[in-house]
Amino acid sequence: MQNQSSPAQLLFPTVPNNYCPEGKWSDIFNSFIQIYLNNGTINIPGLGLVTPQQITTINENIQTLQNQFNALALNTYSGSINVSAGSNQIFTISIGAVMPNTDYNIIINPISTDTSTARTNQFLWSLIPATITTSSFQLWVYNPAGAYVSGFNWTAQSITL
What we know:
Elements: E1 9-11, H1 25-37, E2 41-43, H2 52-71, E3 73-82, E4 87-94, E5 105-112, E6 124-127, E7 136-143, E8 149-160
Antiparallel strand pairs: 1-2, 3-8, 4-7, 5-8, 6-7
């Protein structure tokens, strides 16, 4: 495309000095629009180099992207698990539905029983990779005594096309 350093321009007919219609403001404004603004043009450097076929292709690509976006499925499932203090255990989490595949995100948020900011969070968890299926997964959870955690919220999310 040529002239890319040139800015786009809005071009309108020059309003003559003697343009001074009378009447209601709405009539004056509508007259101005019809005579001057409606006869304006936009000059975009290089736009003339784009062929109608290229414009058709661009429109088709935009429609394809829109269709793909509309087809996205967001699968989100969540739940809560209670955990006792001083525990070291494995939890099997059933998702409640079948995910499209085993490539989904798992988010774990511990639930604190104490609002003190002086506490340190000693709650630990780890996903057990070999246990991930389309309908469940397992977590190892360590909640030592004094960790001030009563449980955790879990979320499993999958975005598929």
